[in-house]
Amino acid sequence: MSAARVALVTGSSSGIGEAIARTLAADGFTVVVNSATSVEAGERIAAELPGGSYVRGDVADPADAVRLVETALERHGRLDVLVNNAGTSTPVPHTDLDGVSAEDWHRILGVNVVGPWQLSVAAVKAMEPGGLIVNISSVGGTRALGSSIPYAVSKAALNHLTRLLAKAVGPDIRVNAVAPGPVETPMSAGSLTDRAARTASMTPLGRIGRPSDVAAVVLALVNTPFITGEVVHVDGGINLVTHMDAPREVGR
Ligand SMILES: NC(=O)c1ccc[n+]([C@@H]2O[C@H](COP(=O)([O-])OP(=O)(O)OC[C@H]3O[C@@H](n4cnc5c(N)ncnc54)[C@H](OP(=O)(O)O)[C@@H]3O)[C@@H](O)[C@H]2O)c1
Fold first, then answer.
1. Hey, which of 61, 174, 180, 248 would disulfide with 206, CB 3.0 to 4.6 Å?
2. CA–CA distances in Å: residue 86 to residues 50, 51, 137, 187, 227
3. From CA 132, how far away is CA 164, in angstroms rounded?
4. What is the topology classification, in CATH, of domain 6-240?
5. For ligand 1, which residues put their CB under 6 angstroms from it?
6. How far away, in angstroms, is 198 Cα from ligand 1 center?
7. Residue 243's pLDDT band (boundaries 50, 70, 90)?
8. Which listed residue (29, 54, 117, 151) is catalytic?
């Protein structure tokens, strides 16, 4: 078995997942980078991480999900941390009820909920006691906001999956979620509306999140062995914003 701890980070060819992969690698992890379509970007990032490797796979596909975990084990001999970061959405205003199709529901729940479930089931079998699963959720999972209703519902489901799994797989494996507010990434570029930016500007910390803000909390969860079943919000205090608040200067 390799001495270095091994982390599998789904959806790590860009944005938050890339920052998590780089942060864990900097902490000494051997990181398995994954994406469904952006193979070149994933391979490039993996090549930049000491001992890193890349596996293409769609987390929503049952066979791919199992293969991702098996490949991590075959290549690196162990699996210590699984970060279910891969996520998808299609921005649809919540008032546009006809703008959401059944296909949208199936695709978003498939990637954001069924995917983490499948990866987690495979990972629990692969991990030694002390293993950790971190699900990347969203403030849309706890507040009535998010880029679409299916997206927000999928993150609420992911939060509950986190709690239920934590009970089911303790004490050997811990399961936590990290719930970012708006973060500047390729995904948010399509949905980070002026209104979201204005809302972020009303938060106590007065800015939108960065991928590194989320990665720092994932690393903190790695290093805090008595936390399980928690949904940790990384949102600059967006939960505290009310309709009484005035915008502050963005970008502080
Ligand atoms: N950005 C925000 O404001 C924000 C806020 C709250 C929560 N989040 C959550 O944070 C996570 C990362 O978001 P991001 O903003 O960093 O997005 P991003 O920059 O678009 O990155 C998404 C990553 O997931 C991969 N991916 C997408 N579908 C996949 C699938 N089916 N299987 C495997 N990989 C897949 C993408 O690669 P390919 O497309 O090539 O597969 C990419 O590597 C998501 O779960 C998202 O819901 C983001």
1. 248
2. 22, 22, 10, 11, 23
3. 14
4. Rossmann fold (3.40.50)
5. 10-17, 34-38, 58-60, 85-88, 111, 136, 138, 180, 182-183, 185-188
6. 23
7. confident
8. 151
CA of 89 to the centre of ligand 1 (A): 9
- Write out pLDDT tens, residues 80-103: 999 999 999 999 999 999 999 999
* Strand spans (E) along 114-202: 131-136, 173-180
- To the query of whether residue 151 is one of the catalytic residues in this protein, the response is yes
Query: Which mutation among 13, 158, 187, 191 tests ligand 1's pocket best, with the greatest number of atoms within 8 A of CB?
Result: 187
Query: Are 179 and 159 spatial neighbours (Cβ–Cβ below 8 Å)?
Result: yes
- Nearest CA to 114 among 51, 60, 168? 60
Ligand 1 centre distance from Cα of residue 192 (Å): 14
Residue with tokens 């001495």: 3
Chain center to CA of 34: 12
pLDDT digits (tens, 9 = 90+) for 126-150: 999 999 999 999 999 999 999 999 9
Cis peptide before 150 (omega within 30 of 0): no
